[in-house]
Design brief:
It is a single chain. By secondary structure, the protein is α/β, with parallel strands linked by helices. The chain has eight helices and nine strands. The chain starts with a helix and ends with a strand.
């Protein structure tokens, strides 16, 4: 009888340990990418600018999250350098930049210093990085944003960009392979297009650039266009009023 009780206790303890480990090991579960229109997952983490709470610290600003698999990599470094140079552009668009990397805060500080030592603006003046590099060494943020792929190197897929609006809704998502640098000009264009669409209740057509004509939303119901295929009837271009 004592042997049976002992074996039962051992089995119960083993099951508890496995359950606890699986509960805490998020890498064992497929992380899910939050969809367009969903609320951006919140987080609190240490960064090169101190402790940050996202999105609470950013009020009614637009936010762009850039994620990186690790520090001191050539492609990621070139991207951070470009973002450092573009800080005034994003500030003028009421947009905050948040950099996530799966290395720890000590390594982030070293990476930041190395980039600042290399970066200079068009006037050959040194550039200071004002946006935070966030410590995601436990990969909790990466998991919340669906960037953990259990079929490959757990950090390899952490190359996402998330544009978040003032209501903290995700408005744009893009992922880049580690071999290809992000086009910061295109990310900025997308931000401006979203802001333009929201402000003016319009659409932006293919290859739209700021200042070009926009499209007006459907003037009739979607059902109308199922039977009326006149392209001039629903592709209505317009200039934005000054």
């Amino acid at each position: 009888m004592k042997t049976k009780i002992f074996l039962f206790v051992i089995l119960f303890f083993a099951i508890g340990q496995v359950w606890s480990q699986s509960k805490n090991d998020k890498s064992a579960v497929n992380s899910r990418i939050p969809l367009l229109g969903e609320t951006a997952p919140s987080f609190k983490a240490e960064s090169t600018r101190g402790t940050i709470e996202f999105p609470a610290d950013y009020g009614r600003k637009w936010k762009i999250i850039f994620s990186h698999p690790e520090d001191f990599t050539p492609v990621c470094t070139s991207e951070i350098m470009e973002l450092a140079l573009m800080q005034p552009d994003f500030k003028s668009l009421n947009c905050a930049l948040v950099i996530i990397s799966t290395d720890d805060i000590a390594r982030h500080k070293g990476w930041e210093k190395a980039i600042e030592d290399m970066a200079s603006d068009k006037n050959n003046e040194p550039v200071k990085i004002k946006f935070p590099l966030v410590d995601d060494s436990k990969m909790n943020i990466s998991w919340e944003y669906g960037m953990i792929n259990p079929t490959v190197d757990s950090r390899h897929a952490v190359r996402g960009v998330f544009i978040v609006d003032p209501d903290n809704k995700i408005r744009n998502i893009s992922f880049y392979p580690s071999e290809v640098g992000r086009n910061m000009g295109e990310i900025k264009r997308t931000l401006i297009a979203l802001q333009t669409a929201d402000k003016n209740t319009v659409l932006t057509p293919v290859n739209w650039e700021p200042g070009k004509d926009v499209l007006l939303p459907y003037p009739k119901s979607v059902e109308y266009y199922k039977t009326h295929q006149n392209i001039a009837g629903y592709m209505l271009y317009s200039k934005l009023s000054e």
